[in-house]
Amino acid sequence: MTKELWYRLKELHEQREHVVLMTIVSGEGSVPRKAGAYMLLGERGEQHGTIGGGAAEYRALQLARDLLQKMIENTDMRTENCSVAPVIKQFRMDGQEVFGRDMICGGYIRVLFTPVFKEDPEADKWMDEGLRLWGERERFFLLLPLGDSTERVQVFSAAALDEKRKEGSLPEGFGATHSADKMIWETNHGKIYAEQFGIGGKVYLFGAGHISKALVPLLESIQFDCVVLDDREELLTKERFDKAAECRLVDYQDIAKYVSVTEEDYVLIMTRGHRFDHEVEHFALQTNAYYIGMVGSKRKIAISHEKLRSEGIDEVLLNRVHAPIGRPIGSRTPEEIAISIAAELIAVRSHQ
User: Fold this and answer.
1) How many angstroms separate the CA atoms of 21 and 40, rounded?
2) What is the pLDDT of residues 68-125, one digit of tens each?
3) Taking the chain, what is the end-to-end CA distance rounded to the nearest angstrom?
């Protein structure tokens, strides 16, 4: 679930609407979306997110509407046991499912339908906790009970979850791991789908020029938090970078004074000149940044690297720099270059 979708879920809950949260908990074969795709359907018909589109999503929405109707009929949350439980449904993608023959990918998805009642005070707690942890850039898990589970939806920080495991209140093992951050746990109370969030660091964009201006909204739309840095205050405006998490005025001669880069962060070097690129690259190579990329021609990059070698930077460190940055798609304009950079960061993040 993206941060944006989490906010939409919170908004619908604050508007006192019943909501069905649809989650792909597993997928096999050639399918448009796999584990970790989410979609919301509100009581008034508002939809957010996608689980792949097409006939499967259409049927999923039909099922979600039926579930919402049952929720409306069972709004008494004073009882300990809710009469509307989560539902899990498998959709085949080989054209044989009764919902139609327009998706013939040749696989299947299993979708979890989680009812979120408008008067459920526990929903407020886990939604708020998730947003708090996300805002603090702390890893956390969303735990969604599957259809046979008597557990409730919960959010735990990764640290808190480790403590619960040590106490024995959560299982040590889990089954059917889908990826490093999505899994299904077997518990004494049934199965739980668990997904980790808050993964990935900030993107530090050094240089507030045309490429950064085109790149920031693109990266923000795919869930990268961007910090734009430059020594030109007139470019660091809210109007120019309204999608940036932050803009910082820096002195390129003393970058470490303004920035603390972690091993999860990305550094993008796209300043207005060779000298400033050199200063930023020299700084970046002294950090544990997960990714360092630099815009520029091969000649410009070669000049910068030769100067760094003369300053004692060895080849191993220089090989950390992705340059020229971006996927080779023949990009020329700032907007096209932004797309090529975003594509590269998506690929890099998928391995992170």
Assistant:
1) 5
2) 999 988 865 444 445 688 999 998 765 444 334 444 455 788 899 999 999 888 999 9
3) 17
